[in-house]
Design goal:
Rossmann fold, 5 helices, Transcriptional regulator, six-stranded mixed beta sheet, globular, 152 residues, 8 strands, two-stranded parallel ribbon, CheY-like_superfamily
Length: 152
């Protein structure tokens, strides 16, 4: 699975206060557990930061759905659950980073804080351990969105 993505422009527009730009981002979320998906969406919300607005979500429960969606393109941030059954997000992350040209930034959700080395092995751009801290999840998504916007 090799894929070259067309550049997906991240929309920037003046904020309501007129100071700065808002990054409109699309987030692809993978977990086989609906509770984890709900927790991530609740943590990130519509605006994980003043300058970042999530305009589109896609929830995937299988690794195949993730690769299919990334092949189609148009995603700014990917969140993968490292604790997903059958195909864990850590191995999937490594696969995506090695096989997809200009892969979007990936946040992995690790099983515990001591699994940071696994996140590094997976080539993830950032990691947040379970149990999920909503503030850390929102900050990580916002940071990756800014990183993606800087590249595009």
């Amino acid at each position: 699975m090799t894929s070259a993505h067309a550049a997906h422009p991240t929309t920037t527009a003046p904020t309501a206060s007129g100071g700065g730009a808002t990054h409109a981002v699309s987030v692809l979320l993978y977990s086989d557990d609906i509770t984890t998906r709900d927790a991530v969406r609740a943590a990130v919300g519509r605006r994980p930061a003043r300058d970042v607005e999530v305009t589109r979500w896609l929830e995937c429960a299988t690794a195949f759905a993730v690769t299919e969606a990334l092949d189609a393109g148009g995603w700014d941030v990917v969140v993968l659950d490292g604790e997903a059954a059958k195909n864990g997000g850590l191995g999937l992350c490594r696969e995506l980073k090695n096989e997809i040209y200009n892969c979007p930034p990936v946040l992995v959700l690790t099983g515990r804080p001591q699994d940071g080395w696994l996140a590094a092995w997976s080539l993830a751009d950032d990691a947040v351990p379970h149990p999920l801290d909503p503030i850390k999840v929102a900050e990580a998504v916002a940071g990756l969105a800014r990183k993606r916007a800087a590249v595009l």
